[in-house]
Amino acid sequence: MHLAQKTNGRFVLAAAALAGALLVACGGGGGGSGTTVVTEPPPVVLPPVNGPAWLGFGADAQHTAVAQIATQDLARIRWRTAVDMAPQYSPQGYLLVHYGSPAITSKNTVLVPVKRLSQDGYMVRAVIGYTGELLWEMQTDYVMPPHRWTPSFNVTLTSANRMIVPALGGRVLYRDNPDSGGVSAQSAAFYGNAAYDANKAAFDANVFVNTPITADSQGNIYFGFTALPGAPAGLRGGVARIGADGKGSWVAATVLTGDAEIDKAATNSAPALSQDQKTLYVAVNGPREKGYLLALDAATLTLKSKALLIDPQTAQSARVSDDSTASPTVGPDGDVFFGVLETTYAQHNARGWLLHFNAGLTQTKTPGSFGWDDTASIVPASMVPGYKGSSQYLITTKYNNYGRAGSGDSKNKVALLDPNAAQADFIAPGVQVMKEVLTILGVTPDPNYPGGVVEWCINTAAVDPFTKSILVNSEDGWLYRWDLTTNTLSQKVRLTSGLGESYTPTAIGADGTVYAINNAMLFAVGK
To answer: What's the pLDDT score for residue 4?
Structure first.
């Protein structure tokens, strides 16, 4: 048995058989007496951590998902905790619930977004990264926007270590110094706290944060929201900003696009910032799943440019689905990548496309051959010793080929793609797509599709330049390390027995621990 004791911000694991130097009186025959001095063994002190923070979905404001520290070996599950206390499975046994990515502070506090109830009911649990021991938990009043698949509830960190989560009525809750307990949360509304206080019930019933929150290095935050007809203060669904000074602003998606069919930010799609943080990229859509990618001035939310999202095979509108978590990714050279579904379901085996634009959204570049429910991760070209191309960086995405759709054969892969080289698409040969640099097939046979394997299960994959590997989760219940030097799955650890589920993120802690979600649980994997 061990006791856990908090001392000056460090956690000490002490043997509890004895507490301190204990004097034990021993009675003897004939009235003799004596004492025995027993000394407690020295406590085990967990070393303090001061590493790189993982700020939320995709690790940073560009959603590159690139680690700043080497990951630990996938030797064992150190701890696990629920991200859903009442998971709701479909009649077929699938878990069609999107779960938010953990955020991890530089001191290795893991901030876990948790769904508490079968429907609404969310909280954040802060746990010690090394042990999983609870530091504090915070209930929220957040309510989901209208949805089909359950949307994600996300937590975000700013560079100043402020934690931010969505709240009821389109507001946000923020809490400073999340490495310590006893700090109260405060709230802010992008349309003004006074307006909210004057009409709480109407705002609560009609206005919903519907994307993860993105923060810049100055503490300004950005997110999408939806507003039902008749929402107070003239609100219409769109994009919101709350400055580090507390001042809020917003602009309607219909106004930004000039398109009456577009009524909100795309649900689950996190806004992204350019490398210089002057441009905000946001996906917007409407009921018919027509969508645009917008480039906005990050300070004023005025429109810089827009791109109607087009299927490269049909030259018609692609579909931006609220069942997806695809978010824009910004490359080191400023190029922007965003995943969509094809115009007609299964025409591209339900893989969709990874659309590719220049920074100004004025030039459409070579797309990737997969885009459904996936946010591209950035892979420095130096991670691939065998790469002979000229690109500064490569792109990694899921590359499932669904057996249930079109001509899919269930040979589900993960791919490493060259954004500046092309090949003919293997499904639609008339379309040029990003050239495959490496691909790797899943491991576990799919009993429903002879010759096929179980789907990969990632919506943003953590990239580790230090070990030249990518951390990928599978619906077979295993977490794998994809070694890019050998193009092998060099390490693995079993998380669960596996199931069909919405795609999930992998993340990396300040001490190199790897985090993955499978079957409504967050797993901490390391040495």
So the answer is: 32
pTM, 2 dp:
0.91
User: By C-alpha distance, which of 486, 524, 487, 483 is closest to 506?
Assistant: 524
Instruction: Indicate whether 85 and 36 sit together in one domain.
Output: no
Give the list of residues 6+ apart from residue 442 with CB closer than 8 angstroms, or none.
412, 413, 453, 454, 455, 456, 474, 476
Range of the domain at 65: 47-526
For residues 208 and 313, membership in a common domain is answered with yes
Which band of pLDDT confidence, cut at 50, 70 and 90, is reported for residue 5?
very low
Two tokens at 174? 């923020």
Q: How confident is the model at residue 43 (pLDDT cuts 50, 70, 90)?
A: low
Question: Shortest CA distance to 325 belongs to which of 210, 180, 155?
Answer: 210
The C-alpha atoms of residue 485 and residue 115 are separated, in whole angstroms, by 38
Q: Are residues 68 and 188 in the same domain?
A: yes
Edge-to-edge, what's the strand order for the sheet holding 353-357?
329-330, 336-340, 353-357
User: Residues 84, 99: contact at Cβ < 8 Å?
Assistant: yes
Mean local confidence (pLDDT), 60-86:
98
26, 168: one domain: no
